[in-house]
Specification:
- The chain is an alpha/beta fold.
- The chain has a single domain, classed as P-loop containing nucleotide triphosphate hydrolases (Rossmann fold, 3-Layer(aba) Sandwich), CATH 3.40.50.
- About 35% of the residues lie in helices and about 30% in strands.
- The chain is built from 7 helices and 10 strands.
- The chain has a 6-stranded mixed beta sheet with strand order 6-7-8-3-9-10. A 4-stranded antiparallel beta sheet has the order 2-1-4-5, with helices on one face.
- α3 packs across α4 and α3 runs parallel beside α5.
- The relative contact order is 0.19.
Length: about 230
């Protein structure tokens, strides 16, 4: 029997709203495994705690309790809740990908440079031409017009920013990919392109954990699905 790529055990995270002296529960007592090559989907209403789980795995949120055991290629099994920051930076750059609903990049980076930077993490500077070819192919796949490539994405529409975010995450061909509402502001044609790449990555063995509101999009993609309500899996 294979070992889980990701094993979440009794994970809890809450947030303190200091201005009103109130604690808000993000997720509580979450436990599940994700097997290698599997695509697990999490559904639920907004505010049910889905994104909190993904941010704890990526560790932009620091969990309060529990463990997130990741079977890394570089270090073996590590607990993402307590792993050193240098180890987390390595895993994000070399093994993990994250598609957020929001584009968060350095200022004065062009659309082309954002995707090329991710490509170089996979191909290396010594394979610059190959990285450029893959960058241009990915930008075209997501219908980012060439006259936008050298612009700063702060001027882009919400859909263009999301497509750029997906392109930058998927060009890395990560070992483990987190998807946070990857179709949130996309039209149907763009959703088809996202689905094509997800199916391709799945065929190549990428393990994925995604959260969705679009149940129709999930149809036939996910191997298993969990539903969340009020911070817990039901």
């Amino acid at each position: 029997m294979s070992t889980p790529l990701l094993s979440i055990k009794d994970l809890s995270k809450s947030f303190v709203m200091h201005n009103v002296n109130r604690r808000v529960m993000g997720c509580q007592h979450i436990s599940f495994d994700v097997m290698p090559g599997e695509f697990v989907g999490i559904t639920g209403r907004s505010g049910s705690g889905k994104s909190t789980i993904l941010r704890c795995i990526w560790r932009t949120n620091l969990p309060e309790s529990g463990s997130i055991l990741y079977d890394s290629a570089a270090f073996g099994v590590v607990d993402l809740c307590t792993a050193p920051e240098r180890q987390m930076l390595y895993l994000r750059a070399n093994e993990m990908g994250y598609v957020s609903q929001f584009l968060n990049v350095l200022p004065r980076q062009t659309a082309y440079d954002i995707v090329l930077k991710s490509a170089l993490e996979t191909y290396g500077v010594e394979r610059m031409e190959e990285a450029r070819e893959h960058t241009e192919r990915m930008l075209r796949h997501f219908d980012i017009a060439e006259n936008l490539w050298e612009l700063f994405p702060r001027t882009f529409s919400g859909g263009e920013k999301l497509r750029l975010n997906i392109a930058a995450a998927m060009i890395k061909r990560p070992r483990f990919l987190l998807l946070d509402e990857p179709t949130a502001s996309l039209d149907n044609a763009s959703k088809v392109k996202v689905r094509e790449l997800i199916e391709q990555l799945k065929g190549e063995g990428t393990t994925m954990l995604g959260i969705f509101h679009d149940l129709e999009f999930m149809e036939g993609l996910c191997d298993r699905e969990f539903n969340m309500q009020s911070g817990v899996i039901v």
